[in-house]
Every structure is written in C-alpha cells, then in structure tokens.
Amino acid sequence: MNTLLNKPSLIDPFGRTVDYLRLSVTDRCNFRCTYCMAEDMTFLPRQQILSLEELRDSAVAFVELGVQKIRLTGGEPLIRRDILKLVSSVAALSGLEELTMTTNGVYLPKMAQPLKDAGMSRVNISIDSLKPDRFKELTRVGELDQVMAGIDAAGAAQFKKIKLNAVILAGFNDDEVLDLARFAVDRGMDISFIEEMPLGEISSHKRVNTQITSSQIRQQLDSEFTLVDSAETTGGPSRYVSVANSQSKIGFISPMSNNFCESCNRVRMTAEGRLLLCLGNEHSLDLREILRAHPGDTALLKSKIVAAIANKPERHYFDPEQVDIVRFMNMTGG
Ligand code: SAM
Ligand code: SF4
User: 332 with 75: CB under 8 angstroms?
Assistant: First the structure.
C-alpha cells in the first residue's frame, strides 16, 4: 500500500512496482509462426481455459491492486469468442488507464472499429515481413494481404496509437528492417523490433543461428533515419527512440542482448490462469484454482496475488543455445 497517495500498489522484493498485466485470453491461434510455436501444437482443452467471467474477475483484482495498464494477448486474442464483451467490461474498470491488445491483425477488418468502440485505446499488430512468400513461410499459413487489410482497418478506426511488432531473425528477415521501418513511418505508426527468445522447442530453425541484437538493428536504421533518444519506457526490456520529422517512435525489445529487468513493471497471466511472475522463469501461481474454488471472492484473490508478487524473480537469464523454458510464447502471452 502506498500510504502517501493512499493508493494500493504491488511492490516486489526488489522495490519494483507492478502496474502492468498481460492477460492471455487463449493459447490458440490461426497462425503457426515458426519462432513462436511448434508446427503440430496441442492446445489446451477448453475447460482449462479461463472463462470470460474469470478473466474479468482477475482483471478487477489486479486493477484494485493498482494495475493501470492491461494488454490482452494470446495466442490470437481476436479468435476468442465474445472478446468484445471482455474488452468493454475491462475497459470500464475504474483505475485502469489503458487497455491494449497485441494481435496478428487478421480479424481487424471486422473487429477494429468495434474494439475501439468497446474502449480499447491502442493496438499492437505483428508483421515480420512485407513479402508475401516470406510472410507465409514465417507464419506457416498467414496471408500478408489480410494483415495489411487489418493494419488499414486499425488506421481507419483511429486508435490513440498503432504499433507494429517485428521479430527479426538473422538470415531470414533482417534485410527488411529498413522497409518495415519505412512502412511504419509512412503511416505515422510506431514499430518495435524484437529479439527472438528461446521459449519452447521449435523445429524450423536453430535459434542460436538467427540471433540478431537490437544494436545491430539500430545500426541499419541509423543509415537512413535520424533517431532521437527518448525518455519513454514501458518498463521491461524495451527502449524507444523518436524518428526525426515524423510522428513515429521505434522500439527495441532486447530480452537477449540487454537486460533491463531492473525496471520490469509487469506480470503475465496465461490463458489457463497461471500468474507468471517473469517471462523467463517458471515462478508462478495457479490463480484458476482460487477463481474456481472461491468464485467472486476478490479479497482472497487479491491477497494471493500480493503474496505471489513476493516471488517475482530479480531477472531472467536466456541462452539461445538452449531452451530452459519449455513453454511456447503462445502459452506465455506475449
Ligand atoms: N498472436 C498475437 C500476435 O502475434 O501479435 C499475440 C500473441 S504473440 C505471442 C505476441 C508477440 O510475441 C508477437 O509480436 C510475436 O511476434 C512475439 N513472439 C512470439 N514468439 C516469440 C519469441 N520466441 N521471441 C520473441 N517474440 C516472440
Ligand atoms: Fe500466433 Fe502470434 Fe504466435 Fe504468430 S506470434 S503463432 S500470430 S500467437
């Protein structure tokens, strides 16, 4: 409890305030991105996935504990049935400053405006290549023109900000860094370049061979853009720069090359209700058990969350040579 402001807050043993929740609404997806999933994924049985009510009750508890920002993610959040009901109920929570979503964009032509109307303030759209063949290879099934239509629909819905996400893999799409940045800047959108993390055992490539650092990506960008360092941070392993003479920012998400865990402000909740205290560690608490044994008991839920935060690890250690974390990113909630 922050007694000065009389506002509750979740503070971990390292003095970090947790005010950001990434809430995964499904582990399922219409894509099979090579770096995210195995080709023949087995998804969770439906009864193991939190219901919309359980997701909302969890959001209520976190917001009452001082969480100010919630990102809905997955898997692909827009394939969750009745997602708009969840969006409007969570967006209406008093104390929540921002509700956002990360999506692959395929369903945005239909969903962008309803999401905006339901209270979603920002969206992040993942796009790793502007070449249709390469895009299909990376996502195993994805059609680039559907994602492009989704980006256009998000633009038309006038979200507060649209950010593109691109995971860059050396030898695969690192020749598209400038094209992706130009694409974002031309549309007044932000873009984040993400280092690939070794989450889950994949068969398509050896992650140690596709590693590229944020500073190598930045070197490419410096050849064309004037990048101005920005004080903005969202906590966690990301840093932002502004692109001179544009409305765009470029983010570098560097979980491999640059450890910014000391400013981490977030926790994640998986689709099956596991509260993950760190992306790169297995410290967690089964909130589903509590939600199902004591439905509607927000006080109990809050006390368990507060106790869990005491176990938030100080930092992660990723080694691209090996997969220490067997959970895939779609299970984790990116
Ligand atoms: N399906 C949605 C999407 O792709 O935007 C949301 C979930 S996805 C897991 C969230 C983000 O995690 C995406 O931007 C994706 O590119 C990223 N991601 C997935 N696997 C990753 C990995 N192994 N390393 C780094 N980023 C990863
Ligand atoms: Fe699906 Fe997103 Fe993972 Fe790609 S990155 S497989 S779109 S969850």
Answer: no
Question: What single letter denotes the amino acid at residue 243?
Answer: V
Closest ligand to C-alpha of residue 195 is 1
Residues paired with residue 102 on neighbouring β-strands, in sequence order: 124
Homologous superfamily in CATH for domain 10-162+261-332: Aldolase class I (3.20.20.70)
Domain ranges of the chain: 10-162+261-332
**Helix or strand or coil: residue 131?**
coil
Ligand 1, CB cutoff 6 Å, lining residues: 29, 35-36, 73-74, 76, 102-104, 126, 165, 167, 194, 196-197, 199, 329-330, 334
User: Which residue out of 136, 329, 331, 332 has the highest number of ligand 2 atoms within 8 Å of its CB and is therefore the one to mutate?
Assistant: 329
Q: Which atom of ligand 1 is nearest to the CA of 334?
A: 10
Residues with Cβ within 8 Å of 206's Cβ and at least 6 positions away in sequence, in order, are none
What angle (nearest 5°) sits at the alpha carbon of residue 181, between those of residues 175 and 187? 140
Task: Measure Cα distances from 8 to 15, 63, 64, 97, 317 in Å.
Answer: 14, 9, 7, 15, 30
CB 207, CB 251: distance < 8 Å = no
* pLDDT, tens digit only, all 334 positions of the chain: 444 455 678 999 999 999 999 999 999 999 999 999 988 888 999 999 999 999 999 999 999 999 999 999 999 999 999 999 999 999 999 999 999 999 999 999 999 999 999 999 999 999 999 999 999 999 999 999 999 999 999 999 999 999 999 999 999 999 999 999 999 999 999 999 999 988 877 888 888 888 999 999 999 999 999 999 877 766 556 789 999 999 999 999 988 887 778 888 899 999 999 999 887 777 779 999 999 999 999 999 999 999 999 988 777 777 676 666 666 777 766 6
Specify whether the CB–CB gap between 314 and 187 falls below 8 A: no
φ, ψ of residue 51 in degrees (nearest 5)? -75, 170
